[in-house]
Structure formats: C-alpha cells, structure tokens
Amino acid sequence: MQIRSLVGGTAQLCGMTTSLTDAARSMIEEATGSLGVIEGGHLAGIVTERDVLRAASRGADLGTEAVADWMTPDPDTVGPDIAVDEVAQWMLAAGYRHLPVMQEGELLGIASIKDVLWALHSEANDPKVVEHLPTNS
C-alpha cells in the first residue's frame, strides 16, 4: 500500500501569520493534529498540536503569536508512491508524528503516525478495512 491512500488529497492549511489560537481552532474543527503552513503558495512548514502546547507551556500569547514562530520550518516530506511500511520506519526513526505528502510541489495531505499504524494493522489483518480509514489525524 502506498502513502497516497492515507491522505485525502486536500490538506488542512494555514498561513505564516495565523495565530496559534486560530491554528488550534482549525485543528479541532478539522479533527486533525497538524496544519501545513503555506507561504507564497509553497509549503513553508508544519504546525502541530504539540507546537501549540509547547508555546502555551512557555507562556506565549496564543492569540497573538504567529505559527511561523513555533512551526517546524521546511519539514521533510515524502512522495505519494512511497510504501506505508517505509513511511512508518522513517517516522519512527526520525521521531515524527506527522509527515507531509507532496507531489510536484503540491501538498496532498499530512500523514499521521496514527493513520500509518492503522493502515499497517488493517493491511495485516483485513486489507478491506483500509478503505474506511479516516484521512484527518
């Protein structure tokens, strides 16, 4: 199975100047743990729920602090044709919980470790379950 099957083709996005509060609200509304941060039409970074938590723990004003100050800039990415088990190995080795999936400069989605583990488990036990995977994590 390829990682493309785990991303819905529509990534959840925000801009560099989006406040952490607005980013957190968007993640809650979309039931996802990360957002792609876009600048000039390109992926500039990724902001996750852990980034928001880190900012809060350091006393940041979540309503005024921009995601650009807390995101992971220029994140590693994978192409859509990489096997899910290879992505799992990479995520585990690097300690990633979220990994952007890109094709020809376009963000297709962000795979979460939960999605990857679900797919590996489902594929091992019942490949048809993968058709019903949630695409937002």
Structure characteristics:
137 residues; alpha+beta; two-stranded antiparallel sheet; 4-stranded mixed sheet; globular; CBS-domain
Topology:
Blueprint: E1 13-15, H1 20-30, E2 34-39, E3 42-48, H2 49-57, E4 72-73, H3 84-94, E5 98-103, E6 106-112, H4 113-125
Give a description of the structure:
There is one protein chain. This protein is an alpha+beta fold and 137 residues long. It has one domain: CBS-domain (Roll). 32% of the residues lie in helices and 23% in strands. The protein is built from four helices and six strands. The chain has helices spanning 20-30, 49-57, 84-94, 113-125; strands at 13-15, 34-39, 42-48, 72-73, 98-103, 106-112. Strands 1-2-3-4 form a four-stranded mixed β-sheet. It has a two-stranded antiparallel ribbon with strand order 5-6. Helix 1 (20-30) links the parallel strand 1 (13-15) and strand 2 (34-39). Helix 3 packs across helix 4. The longest helix has 13 residues, at 113-125. The chain is globular, with a radius of gyration of 15 Å.
